[in-house]
């Protein structure tokens, strides 16, 4: 592959363009041409040519301060990819629902927000759920968001919280950065996160991050506090952990086949 890229200018340019997009994403905001050149090691003329093409296509935008950021055209690609991921995972969510009798969800972390990409509702119980496919929420106030943030470096979490803030959805939502970081450490040790009326009063959720997913991803089970008691969680949490492990294994198998 390295030889093919070196001998084919088109393939090499495509690789470099995607590397620039990923470097822009890693900045969490915006970057100048000189900063991109320094971080990528590419010559300034190459950076300029690639960025100009990406701006023309709408995948990068130039801000008023002449710095560059990811463009709006990437949103559609990301959302479609997330929804396809959710469709593929749906059978495993259905099996989880059959096992525990409560609604199962799959979410990813996209542009500092939790995006729900799949949901299988419980057939045993009827209940209005605040979550629905396509809904976006800040991660600090959701079980899936906390499970995903617990897998990130502390510096990444701090930077994200600086960008989003920590508004309170209910009186139970975490709003203190230091206390929240300590809470994430507890989630890591426990192996799953709990949302007890932090996003919506009366609703409880248990969530587990999916290991080795291409983007931060978590699976969860949610329902009313009256049913998702501490006793019930002793059965439900291991079931969610098993589903997260199976999702990770199937992802690995699919990537190996590609």
From TrEMBL:
Source species of the chain: Saccharomonospora xinjiangensis XJ-54
Role played: May be an activator protein for the gylABX operon.
Pfam families xrefs: HTH_IclR, IclR_C
SUPFAM superfamilies for the chain: GAF domain-like, Winged helix' DNA-binding domain
Keywords: DNA-binding, Glycerol metabolism, Transcription, Transcription regulation
GO molecular function, one term: DNA binding
GO BP annotation list: glycerol metabolic process; negative regulation of DNA-templated transcription
Protein name (record): Glycerol operon regulatory protein
Record keyword DNA-binding present: yes
Keyword Nucleus: no
Domain HTH iclR-type: 11-72
Start and end residues of each IclR-ED domain: 73-253
């Amino acid at each position: 592959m390295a030889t093919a890229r070196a001998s084919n200018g088109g393939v090499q340019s495509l690789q470099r363009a995607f590397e620039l997009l990923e470097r822009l994403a890693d900045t969490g905001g915006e970057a100048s041409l000189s900063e991109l050149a320094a971080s990528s090691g590419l010559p300034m003329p190459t950076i300029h040519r690639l960025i100009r093409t990406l701006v023309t296509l709408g995948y990068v935008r130039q801000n008023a301060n002449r710095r560059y950021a990811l463009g709006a055209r990437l949103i559609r690609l990301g959302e479609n990819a997330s929804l396809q991921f959710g469709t593929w995972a749906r059978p495993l969510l259905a099996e989880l629902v059959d096992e525990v009798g409560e609604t199962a969800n799959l979410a990813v972390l996209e542009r500092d927000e939790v995006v729900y990409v799949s949901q299988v509702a419980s057939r045993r119980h009827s209940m209005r759920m605040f979550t629905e496919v396509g809904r976006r929420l800040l991660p600090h106030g959701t079980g899936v968001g906390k499970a995903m943030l617990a897998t990130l470096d502390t510096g990444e979490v701090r930077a994200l919280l600086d960008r989003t803030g920590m508004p309170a959805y209910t009186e139970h939502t975490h709003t203190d950065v230091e206390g929240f970081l300590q809470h994430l450490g507890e989630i890591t040790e426990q192996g799953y996160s709990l949302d007890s009326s932090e996003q919506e009063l009366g609703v409880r959720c248990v969530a587990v991050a999916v290991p080795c997913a291409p983007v931060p991803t978590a699976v969860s089970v949610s329902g009313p506090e009256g049913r998702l008691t501490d006793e019930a969680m002793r059965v439900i949490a291991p079931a969610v952990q098993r589903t997260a492990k199976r999702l990770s294994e199937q992802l690995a198998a699919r990537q190996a086949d590609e």
